[in-house]
Structures are given as structure tokens and as C-alpha cells.
Amino acid sequence: MSEWLKEPVSKTGVGASLSRVRISPSPLMCSVYVIWSEKLKKRYIGSTEDVDKRLNQHNSGKTPFTSRGIPWNKIHVEKYSSIIEARARERFLKSGKGREWLDKMYPDLRKKDVVC
Question: Is residue 33 part of a domain?
């Protein structure tokens, strides 16, 4: 049986807006992943317990947001021991600083050129 955390995830506010985080009773690793669509020139950031299964879902059109960008390619994966850590990292990667970090890590995979 799953439990739901209804409190903020941390005192620092990281992930505090995740008002309901599912806590899995099993000791599975959770991964944060970044996938890239060459067709859309966009990346998608998510978290899951099974990255390959989730990528297959994205590429089969079962996810409405990503169905327009098929095929999606996995470009970055990070593993965490808890869903709370993974969701905090996912939230960071979706923030301005996180997008900057991804742009530096993968400079060839950006939607538009940034003039410095």
C-alpha cells in the first residue's frame, strides 16, 4: 500500500509545492531523466522508477505532451534512492538554473542559440 506525504518535502522549500508525493513502500531506485526530440528541438524532463519503460511510453504516443515529438532520445539520467530526492532534482532541472545547467552540459541540444 502506498503512502502519501502531505507535508512540504524539506525545510528549505525545495519541492515544497509537491503537496502530495507518492512514497513507494519498495526500495526501488527512482531516476530523473531528460529526453530530446530532434523534431521539436525540445527536451522533456521527468522522473520514474523505470526509464526505459517510460521512454517507450513517450515514443508510443501514450503521453499527450510528448506525442508530437516522436522519436524521443534519452540524453541524461540520474538515479536517486528516494522519490523525494528525484522530484527535488526534477524540479531543479525544470527551473531557470537547471535549464542553464542542461544547456552547459548539452550545448548542441538547445532550441535556439543564446547570444552571450
Answer: yes
